[in-house]
Design brief:
The chain is α+β, with helices and mostly antiparallel strands. It is 35% helix and 28% strand. The protein contains five helices and eight strands; from the N terminus they run H-H-E-E-H-H-E-E-E-E-H-E-E. An eight-stranded antiparallel beta sheet has the order 1-6-8-7-3-4-2-5.
Length: 198
Amino acid sequence: MPQNPELKVRSLVATSNSRRRSRAVPRHRRIGRKHQVRKKCQNKRIKMLFMHFITQPHAIRIIGLELRTSNEVAMQTIPSHWQRFMAEAVMTQIEGKLSNAVYAVYTHFENAGHNNIGQYSMIIGAQVSSQHPVPVGLCHCTVPAGPRAVFKGVRSQPERISEIWQEVWLRTDLPKTFVAEYERYLVDGTIEVSIGLR
């Protein structure tokens, strides 16, 4: 006798579901696996974006090459400014450097003390003494003393600096001054972003 097509379909569906259940990973193993992946990602993020608070006891004076830009065009102007800094060997033009660390200072904000909307300066250079003369073609700025939040990035990976800044922008709880923020690149590969606080 021909089998009822409807019964045949039901049988096939039931067999398929049974096989699927037999291959399924137990729930406690699925949860454990997700927890391991989440924990690994969190640990990686903590390692990459460790933040701590400091009090900078003295003002820092920087001499370097200036770029006037804004957030709207920063993605286009800042990379070319770094290229110019390297091509012109700006660090060799700065005499009396207190260290070989490279500073990229964001300052002279159009709305200083309020926000970073509008024009601002990015000055890439080195720390010098307060009385050191400024070479022709360069400029200087001052990072005032006071409390700061310091974010540490992945060592020797400056191409990932934008990831640190994304974290900085997310920290709306920080009372930022919008006077002078800076990136610091040490000779050992350490990368920091320092944000002035009220």
